[in-house]
Amino acid sequence: MILPRPSIDPELAAGLAQMPLVAELTPDILQQLRQYKVPAETYLEGRAIERREASIMAADGTALAATILRPADAAADAPCIYWIHGGGMVLGDRFANLDIPLDWLAAFGAVVVTVDYRLAPEVSGTTLVEDCYRGLEWVAGHAEELGIDSSRIVVAGISAGGGLAAGTVLLARDRSGPAVAAQVLICPMLDHRNMTVSSRQYSGEPGLWTRESNAFGWRAVLGGDGAEVPACVSPAIATDLSRLPTTYIDAGSAEVFRDEVIEYASRICAAGGQAELHIWAGGVHGFDGLFPEARVSLAARRARTDWLARVLA
Fold this sequence. Notes:
By secondary structure, the protein is an alpha/beta fold. It is 37% helix and 19% strand.
């Protein structure tokens, strides 16, 4: 039975009508989707940005590609946006949705660092989040060389990248690792249990990211062997959300992750932390990445930027 659903914003609905949607991600569809990547140049064209490539060693010695983007006129102690891309843990690369952090590069003179973490199912378990954590350690360890203020490192990500950002910040806290000034979690993938009302609402029909596709992504990461799931992989199961940096977290009302986002923000506040929560009426999963010119998308991006302006000040 299909549960009642919040209506989709009309501008977003018009855009969705032009897109091929699937009810469930499969191995064959995954391989097809992996063929399509947006090059960095698409986002960088017309911007006065200095680009540098680097290689970061993962815990097992694997080299992870990283890109550092600086405003041409960057200050010596610029804030840093450490960006973690989305893709359901199984798709994407470090340039995905790069326009979002580049807005903050332009607004705040921030240095953007983005890293290619390895994807499931080729790797699984904690490998993805450990790759992201090594990237954060590298940024903090090279702060002077990168021209960033190590007290103003913001960890940000979208979808799977939002969940990995949350897990990376949990690791930084638990390991007394790099200081994180703030985390920005955009429609984050937080809960492997996939059992919320919003998860069940977006099941059984084609969509941008359905409950079935979500289950595919989590199976790819966890393997289905029944082993205990670490909180850094599925942050929603963390028993302690205290001592986290100030948090911005958002989602659409018409998407799978709505309810796990609401609960995560509420639990941060219950633990004595600060969490600014936005649920955008009519928003589908990743709406402002897909349809950045829609009015609700412009409002969502403006709200995040206004929040970051307060935090970075």
